[in-house]
Amino acid sequence: MNNIWWETKGEGNCHLVLLHGWGLNAQVWDCIVPQLSSQFTLHLVDLPGYGRSSGFSAMTLQEMAERVLAQAPQRAVWVGWSLGGLVASKIALLAPERVSSLVTVASSPCFSAQDEWPGIKPDVLAGFQRQLSEDFQRTVERFLALQTMGTETARQDARQLKQAVLSLPMPSAEVLNGGLEILKTEDLREALTGLATPFLRLYGRLDGLVPRKIVATLDACWPQSQSLIFPKAAHAPFISHPDDFCIALKEFNNFRM
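^ Pimeloyl-[acyl-carrier protein] methyl ester esterase, sequence as received from the core. Prediction below:
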């Protein structure tokens, strides 16, 4: 079995696994690694098919979660951003004994809008899938621009995300399409209702991909979880507000260490 790319940094007593979002790779976390590596042993992962984890075809959410879990420490804090939040959540459902706490960042248990549930309109996701076959680099860049829109540092944040993408080989159109399929079809709302693992949800108030309306809804559905909204952040709060993000992460986990 091929290994996915995995790097360990830091010497903290607590293991912390960081999972990136769609189209990207572990380089997106570079801005917060120095602040976290004194307290945690960090595990930086390129999801299967992304970045340095090439040689993988498109996977389902369950397949991706199982593949990541196969190389993971026995017990860790799992932090997942956007698509990575779905992967981390699936891991918490598959192997709760391996997850000391779960932190999702600008993520949703159901990214696709439906009925009374706010999210990304299915035709928008379908449009991205269609455009991938025509010019997937431009499609990824458009998606990155959406993630930082509205913040005071939007241009700088988008440049940082783009740099993370362009610094490594681009994922194949098939892998990117598979990731969009996960965003379009997965729904973990009911499955996560009974999750006993300590659970923190972090959001950006200006996020155009994960509407802030879902926060109060999930507070009610998942009273066992905690939520925090960064008022001036969009879809990548750890890039636009790294200090506030690291404080929130440390405080949540210090409480449990």
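The CA atoms of residues 47 and 53 lie 6 Å apart.
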